[in-house]
Amino acid sequence: MSKGICGACMKRCPVNAITKDGHDKAKCRMKAYGDAAKELATSYGGDGKQTAGCALCQTNVPCEFRNPNKAVVRV
Ligand code: SF4
Prior knowledge:
The protein is mainly α. It contains three helices and two strands, in the order H-E-E-H-H. The protein is elongated.
């Protein structure tokens, strides 16, 4: 939501981890992997807060394959 007007990603999230206030990464992580991803990341010395989510919010949205804010150049 670069301009805060689209919101397609918010509708795609099954656990409401994305709101106008931001991205609740703990809720996101728990949806996809529970504590397993956090434990794996920390076991390798990583940051347990930086794990992947389910990615539904990145599919079937206007910015999935292109930047919808970028002007279309016709030739
Ligand atoms: S990755 Fe999944 S759980 Fe996380 S914000 Fe996106 S849709 Fe929601």
